[in-house]
# Entry
Amino acid sequence: MVQVYKFGGSSLKNADGVRNLRKIVADVDQSLVLVLSALGKTTNALEEVVQASFEAANTWRRKLDAVLEFHEAMASDLLSEPDVFLDTILRPSFDTLARKLEDPPSGSFDFLYDQVVSMGEIWSTLLVHHYLVATGLAFRFIDIRRYLLTDNNYREGIVDWDQSDFLIRKGFTCTGEKKIITQGFIAGTANGHTTTLGREGSDYTAAILASILEARQVTIWKDVPGVMNADPADYPRPEKLQEISYREAIELAFFGAKVIHPKTLKPLHKKRIPLWVKSYKDPSGEGTLIHETEEPPKLIPVFVHKRNQVLISILPRDLSFVIDEGLGRIFSRIDNHKVKVNLIHNSAVSISLCVDRFDGRVNRLIDELSLNFKVRYNSDVELITIRRYTDESIQEMIAGKTVLIEQKTRSTANYVIKQFI
# Structure
């Protein structure tokens, strides 16, 4: 049976990271689908290119040249004869993109975003594939945009499961080469345009491929030993979770845990495919197993911070019950503007939403809601979630902080607090 490995940008930030990837995949003696993100911070850099191009700022070319220089340096470090790869594959691809950006943008910002930012994954897989083959590993390169199809909901493409199932089963058969390399995060439409699956969506790609190919397991390679009970950046001594259920992982991902993309678990749960989260720094480490299991009776508290949030409070102008009078209108507008809601809190005459701050979408939503409602908002708030909370863990989290909203269920405590920068 096939295995699926996914490597993110942090594992590919330099040539040594790519060499380490080779050591890991070289030990796999079964059929393997290797899913890669863009190299290092390429996605962030290409987002700046898109923004500059859409605003008709001349800085886009300088920013794109910096991305090319980074990839050229990586190729020169990895390949014994880099000029062939650079002159015949990489530089022509950059030139093609640059010519497109010279023309005035056609279509929406989200459309342009997907056509440009997606190239990070293409360049990453082209370079790593070239390196793996040059060092004696037989991998077949596949452009996933021909096989994983979505609608034209750019930046959040919705997968066409029927078409994708047919195409992936046909195109990803491991005959001849037992190993395949392809891209995460990106997909295609039926008319040949590129879409993306949402920021950090490479995990989701790995899960889709695993589900369709009925893989034995998926391994996501990270810079942490597994799923931790807190982000090491926030806590000096986080603890690793040995195993958790799909349901627990979904809860953590929804509230902002960075280890797993929120959409990843559903395709795996449907086929009961286990997911391992392991460290590329210590490939022999145990990692964390996510699978169908009963939760242990006592789990340690898990802390999740979701920063860069906006708290929006919506009130009727005439003190009528917002639940009765305006809820449908409010949520239809949220859907229209593609704003992600992470927490909902309501009273008799108001509803408050904690949402992701996402480009200008939140501002446009607030402007539209203000036509019919009183709208107040706080920018730069933080959503803190404690799973399996205790009184002590709550006090540890909120002591000295300004709490704007508090919600509790049997197993989860949520706090919206002012974020001090």
